[in-house]
Amino acid sequence: MPAVTVLMAVHNGEQFLAETLASVAAQTFADYEFLIVDDASSDGSAAMLAAATKADPRIRILTNASNIGLTKSLNLGLAEAKGEYIARIDADDVCFPNRLEVQLACMREHPEYVGITSGWAMIDGEGREIGTVDDPLDDWQVRWLLGWNPPAPHPTYFFRRCPDGRVPIRYDETYRTAQDFDLWSRLAKIGPTRRLPDVLIQYRRHVGAITHAKRHEQAQNCAQIGRANLVARLPSDVAAKLEPLIALFSYNAKADVPTIQAAIAGADAMVEHDEIGSHYDWLRKTTAGLLADAALSRGGALSSPKAITAFAWHARRHLPYLARAVLSDPGTALKSLRNRKRG
After folding, report:
1. Which of 1, 30, 230, 331 gets the highest tally of CB atoms within 10 A of its CB?
2. Average pLDDT of the chain, as a whole number
3. Element containing residue 337 per DSSP (H, E)
């Protein structure tokens, strides 16, 4: 049995598929199977996969008779997977050569972990790097982030196929998008997870990506999953105060003055509850970035001088941390502005 199953689903992915296949073939760790679900592709993907299979016996192809979507395709792959660990990759992303070696070594060194993600370099459709995330997150930080977002992009995921030691984990097929967020939320309930600082993936953002084409659907699913995580880890009164911030973050509210004030009050209540010495600076910086993304970008406050003034006044205790967040991660700030332009 291979130690790792690299799992991928592809539907009409020939534009970037060759680069993805080559990046997996170039891994410094060789004891893996590459399980690929062809979700009824109608372009040249099937022919590319057939050629790759002839060249590398570690590749196995499952072919769907009709297009069933990413979530169901991944579950078909998980049902056939043989590896103790699952390493996800998408057909438009690229693994660095040491990806499997580094993540597997970490999981073997820390048998208490049920899953780990990694840092990533964001690239565009032409392969140009547009940002890098390489800061580590421990289990507490991951659980905090799960109120709002997954800890890293889906293609960085590396997790135990049977995280409880008995039953293989599956994606929730009620989610066509944000299925990765739900999966990691359930992993985190079973055991500790973390994000490595190692940059092991080139994560491609382009107009054909699911995260771009179904952005609003994904935001609603993320809100549903994140709200459940917040309710599970916070006192009920604090979780209730976060509803205006959740509404802004999920594009369900406009950033008028009362909503901005309520969202910031909710964030203040969360910070007061979560105040932990070893994570205080990270908590304040991350909360400030969350507020800015929710109110200024997703809520549209940047379009209203009155709303900007209200944000600056009510969030004044967060502004120094916001400046630090922007300076330490300008790529995320630029992405938020691009989200606003897309509407």
Report:
1. 230
2. 93
3. helix 330-342
Q: What is the C-alpha to C-alpha distance for residues 124 and 121, in angstroms, rounded to an integer?
A: 10
Could you give the residue range(s) of every CATH 3.90.550.10 domain in the chain?
4-212
111: phi then psi, degrees, rounded to nearest 5: -65, -15
Cα–Cα nearest to 95, from 45, 34, 156: 156
Q: Which listed CATH number (3.30.70.270, 3.40.50.80, 3.40.50.2000, 3.90.550.10) goes with 4-212?
A: 3.90.550.10
Query: Among residues 124, 122, 331, 95, which one has the least CA distance to residue 200?
Result: 95
Exposure string over 152-170, b if 16+ CB within 10 A, otherwise e? bbbbbbbbbbebeeeeebe
Q: Are 6 and 33 in contact (CB under 8 A)?
A: yes
Using alpha carbons only, give the angle 201, 294, 181 rounded to the nearest 5 degrees: 40
**Residue whose C-alpha is closest to residue 94's, from 8, 172, 21:** 21
Strand 158-160 relative to strand 115-123, pairing? antiparallel
- Side-chain half-sphere of 156: how many Cα atoms within 13 Å? 27
